[in-house]
Design a protein that fits this description.
CATH architecture: 2-Layer Sandwich
Structural class: alpha+beta
Number of strands: 6
CATH superfamily: Peptidase S8 propeptide/proteinase inhibitor I9
Order of helices and strands: EEHEHEEHE
CATH class: Alpha Beta
Strand content: 25-35%
Largest sheet: 4 strands, antiparallel
Number of domains: 1
Helix content: 25-40%
Strand order of the largest sheet: 4-5-3-6
CATH topology: Alpha-Beta Plaits
Distance between the termini: 38 Å
Number of helices: 3
Length: 129
């Protein structure tokens, strides 16, 4: 497990310019995304795709089973989503166990620490050249 030290502006520490946030298991986000996050204000709202942890002892799961597991994991992170004023972009996770979320940068850091989150990706548009 790799640890990174992130320096971000934080509303939770109003008397300081930056605060330290330790993000464990850097494999939950790409290094490029991590760099972009450090350049944003902690209250900036961004759109991400959250992949919820759906691994179980069963090797094969039906799409419905994946969605049920993901729904339980989503319930585990709801307090984080509420605290950071997140907006879910759909009612339920999809068959891949992911869900789109509008959330603050600080909220992304909080989600990264949750064992219910497998990884987080930027929700980016893809344009032809």
């Amino acid at each position: 497990m790799i640890s990174f030290l992130w320096l971000i502006q934080s509303a939770e520490f109003p008397n300081t310019m930056i605060s330290e946030v330790h993000v464990l298991n850097s494999m939950k986000i790409s290094s490029e995304f991590a760099v972009r996050l450090t350049r944003l204000n902690s209250n900036k709202m961004i759109r991400v795709i959250v992949f919820l942890e759906t691994e179980t002892e069963a090797q094969q799961k039906s799409p419905q089973e994946v969605q049920e597991i993901a729904e339980n994991k989503l319930n585990n992170i709801r307090p984080i989503l509420t605290k950071y004023q997140a907006e879910l972009l759909s009612e339920h996770p999809n068959i891949f166990g992911s869900i789109g979320v509008n959330i603050t940068v600080a909220g992304v850091y909080a989600l990264l620490e949750s064992p219910s989150v497998k990884m987080i990706m930027e929700d980016q548009g893809i344009f032809p050249r």
